[in-house]
UniProtKB/TrEMBL annotation:
Coiled coil: none annotated. It catalyses: tRNA(Phe) + L-phenylalanine + ATP = L-phenylalanyl-tRNA(Phe) + AMP + diphosphate + H(+). Residues 241-486 form the Aminoacyl-transfer RNA synthetases class-II family profile domain. This is Phenylalanine--tRNA ligase alpha subunit. The lineage of its organism: Archaea, Methanobacteriati, Methanobacteriota, Stenosarchaea group, Halobacteria.
Length: 498
């Protein structure tokens, strides 16, 4: 009988009386575990071996588990301390005597009554006279695992896992034994056939491919999972957003992440004493200020801040300093780019109608939580045209979000110093049903447009890419998506659906 080399090796290494794990056979034959597994399945299909599968569970102590193995479980220590002190003792005293520190106190309390050690009531711990800490099954399991002994009680293992004291792991172990047919084949003699498992350039150029025997593919063979690189959810999302906006007739803007406050705030009629411009909300950079700003525009912006625009315009009556306008900070929104483009400072077409967008990072000194990071990607955009109305703004968002399967968006009136009217946008989270804010928008005011020299309407917005990703992937915490705490398992499997 002729068989591929790997199968011959495996067949010869296998035994009829002793089922051997594939890893062991792989060692014996110098085959890679995947190759040995494949050969075993092929031999099984030919009836020459039997493959037996079994799930093996292993349990390993975590660092915390090891600490408690050495020092005793917190609840056990609390019990011993209370018993030694006579059975009922003040909480503080018992904790001190047990040497419990920090979170150990809560851990002891959370497990004390559950395990029948006694009760904790109005600041006193009592030790149950019948309880026996030497019979603590969790402590015994920790000790057994530490010395490499198996623990059979699944309930105890599960509880230790949920307490973070052990890590459980499951793997499939396959063992191979010769069948009668396999033994017969070996007695009659098997020899290795030269089989080829891939077509190489050499085989093609030499013409050898005509004579060789190709190994068959076994698509059912168990292969180790390979975690290759993949596109990050946010990158996929950002590319998709760009495609959609380009499809809607928008051109892309680009510009600096660290910029003069002039572009980030002053052009937007943000008073210099606005809370968002104070030092604790701003990531100010300790670098020399921007020297190059369009002087005439700086003057017009200063005038708008001091006196407002138009006949009966009114300014802020608060100080305005050109030095402050030139100071550099990380942009808190990408509306700085819209200002650069709308002013003509960046190279933009400004003959209406025009549409521009960007998908870039913005930086804010926010408090981290499930929907806020210190940086996020903002989908900035504006449309410049004669006679725009709020309906145009809403229609644009409806069309945009529909491309991502989001049919229901809600608009809430809002206030921005630079737009009037202004609207916040909300979408519903697919998993939690919660309304989450997904963007902010409005029609630029005359105080913004006049200094820029624009005399038609401009509607504009800043939408959060991460929030859109939360709606489309179902992620419930933005920190799962990026940053050092990102959930790799989620990112490996998340699909960007639209
Ligand atoms: N800059 C606003 C978004 C916005 C841009 C343009 C107009 C209106 C609102 C924000 O970051 O929330």
């Amino acid at each position: 009988m002729r068989l591929p080399q790997a199968q011959v090796a495996l067949l010869e290494a296998a035994s009829a009386t002793d089922a051997r794990p594939i890893e062991q056979l792989a060692d014996q034959t110098d085959l890679k575990p995947e190759a040995a597994t494949r050969a075993a399945f092929d031999l099984r299909d030919e009836g020459l071996v039997a493959v037996e599968e079994r799930v093996e569970e292993s349990a390993r102590l975590t660092d915390e588990g090891e600490t408690y193995r050495d020092e005793g479980l917190p609840e056990v220590r609390l019990f011993r301390a209370a018993r030694e002190a006579g059975g009922t003792v003040g909480m503080g005293e018992a904790v001190g005597a047990a040497g419990l520190e920090g979170p150990e106190v809560d851990i002891a309390l959370a497990n004390y009554a559950r395990k029948g050690y006694g009760v904790v009531n109005s600041g006193e711990v009592s030790a149950d006279a019948d309880a026996d800490p030497d019979a603590d099954t969790e402590a015994a399991a920790l000790a057994a695992l530490a010395t490499g002994d198996a623990v059979d009680d699944d309930d105890v293992l599960d509880r230790l896992e949920s307490r973070g004291l052990v890590e459980l792991d499951e793997r499939t172990v396959r063992s191979v034994a010769l069948t009668d047919e396999g033994v017969t084949a070996l007695m009659e003699g098997v020899e290795a056939a030269e089989t080829v498992d891939r077509l190489t350039p050499e085989l093609l150029t030499s013409g050898e491919w005509k004579d060789v025997e190709f190994a068959e593919y076994n698509v059912e063979a168990d292969a180790p999972a390979v975690e290759g690189g993949r596109e990050h959810v946010l990158r996929g999302m950002s590319e998709r957003v760009k495609d959609v906006l380009v499809g809607m007739g928008f051109q892309e803007m680009d510009g600096p992440h660290a910029d003069a406050d002039f572009w980030i705030n002053d052009c937007l009629f943000m008073p210099q004493d606005h809370p968002a411009r104070t030092h604790w909300d701003r990531f100010a950079l300790d670098v020399p200020p921007v020297a190059d700003l369009p002087e005439a525009l700086v003057d017009r912006v200063e005038d708008a801040h001091r006196d407002g625009v138009g006949e009966d315009g009114d300014g802020y009556h608060s100080p305005w300093s050109e030095d402050f306008a030139r100071a550099i900070a990380l942009r808190g929104h990408t509306t700085s780019l819209s200002m650069r483009y709308l002013s003509g400072y960046a190279d933009a077409d400004l003959e209406p109608p025009q549409r521009y967008f960007s998908v870039q990072k913005a930086y804010r000194n926010d408090t981290l939580d499930a929907t806020h990071l210190l940086e996020f990607y903002q989908i900035e955009g504006w449309v410049m045209a004669e006679d725009l109305s709020v309906r145009d703004l809403m229609g644009t968002f409806e069309e945009f979000y529909r491309q991502f399967g989001i049919e229901e968006i809600r608009f809430k009136p809002h206030y921005n110093p630079y737009t009037e009217p202004s609207f916040e946008l909300f979408g519903e989270h697919p998993e939690t049903g919660e309304e989450i804010e997904i963007g902010n928008s409005g029609m630029f005011r005359d105080e913004v447009l006049e200094p820029l020299g624009i005399d038609c309407d401009v509607m504009a917005w800043g939408l959060a890419l991460e929030r859109l990703a939360m709606l489309t992937t179902g992620a419930e915490d933005i920190r799962d998506l990026h940053g050092t705490l990102a959930d790799l398992e989620f990112l490996r499997n998340a699909e960007v659906t639209y």
